[in-house]
Specification:
By secondary structure, the protein is an alpha/beta fold. The chain is 34% helix and 23% strand.
């Protein structure tokens, strides 16, 4: 009965949180605390996909409790891009957390493989269980951080909210995690890869270790660029690293379309001008009235 009470309270508050976050850009505290008070693991469903809410880090599932994605605009964008493909896409999710993006993408018929990188043990557990529940055999979790070189790095994380973990992350504990590079993980050519990065300001470092992959496979890139990222690198830095054949857009939080309004961003998209993805992205540019 106690568990049911806290689940009901968390569900009600999640609806309030969604409205305040989505329409007023207010992020009130306390949702993660309420979700952890439920005191048990849950299987949640969002848009036909099951996610696994692991009790100690329940807040990572946040909007999943009310059947919503935490970043709906990114899902809309990815779906539009994938719907343009017939198959063979490899989706690389760097900083997968509990797998919101990896799980949704894995079911798309155009996707042949999903490779999710996540070094935090509790998140790896949550994502691994979710993949088993959904029976996605084309997906795998690699429990390492992606960086500019292979080695070991200090990670700042939280025992209860690992969503903000990273080299420059936020939390109450510091751990050491093994690192790899995208060049070492993908030595062979990929067909139409999509690379998504959510690594708390280390996106530039990830791409620094992916020179061969970038030159060879020209992936479509989605990278977080918010107040945390801006303190670590600029869009000019990213453009210089990617080169003149890539064009950068803002991913709009309202509708999953693209524009070039970089004053306020959360995620950005970089697309190579000589790939099929460029034509698809050109068709997703927001047409202002």
């Amino acid at each position: 009965m106690i568990s049911i009470f806290w689940q009901g309270a968390a569900t009600v508050y999640a609806h309030v949180y969604w409205y305040l976050h989505r329409y007023l850009q207010i992020n009130p505290p306390g949702l993660g605390w309420l979700m952890r008070r439920i005191g048990r693991d849950l299987v949640l469903e969002v848009d036909g996909v099951k996610t696994f809410m692991f009790g100690p880090i329940a807040g990572s599932n946040a909007m999943h409790l009310i059947g919503r994605w935490n970043e709906p605009e990114t899902h809309l964008f990815l779906r539009a891009v994938l719907d343009s493909k017939t198959g063979g896409v490899t989706f690389i999710d760097v900083g997968a957390n509990v797998g919101e993006m990896a799980l949704d993408v894995a079911r798309h018929p155009a996707v042949c493989s999903v490779v999710a990188f996540e070094p935090i043990e509790s998140c790896v557990h949550s994502l691994t269980v979710a993949l088993l529940i959904n029976r996605f055999p084309n997906s795998q979790v690699r429990p390492v951080a992606v960086d500019s070189e292979i080695g070991v790095v200090k990670f700042v994380t939280s025992r209860t909210n690992p969503s903000s973990s990273g080299i420059g992350g936020m939390g109450d504990v510091e751990i050491e995690v093994p690192t790899t590079t995208l060049d070492s993980e993908f030595p062979d050519s990929l067909v139409d890869p999509i690379l998504l990065m959510d690594v708390e300001g280390s996106e530039y470092r990830v791409l620094t270790g992916a020179h061969r992959l970038l030159a060879r496979d020209r992936p479509l890139i989605i990278f977080e660029y918010n107040h945390v990222s801006r303190s670590c690198f600029s869009l000019d830095d990213m453009q210089h690293l990617l080169g003149p054949h890539y064009e950068i857009f803002r991913l709009r939080t309202k509708d999953g379309l693209l524009d070039r309004e970089f004053g306020h961003t959360w995620n950005c998209v970089a697309v190579h001008k000589e790939t099929d993805y460029y034509g698809v992205c050109s068709g997703l540019i927001f047409a202002s009235q």
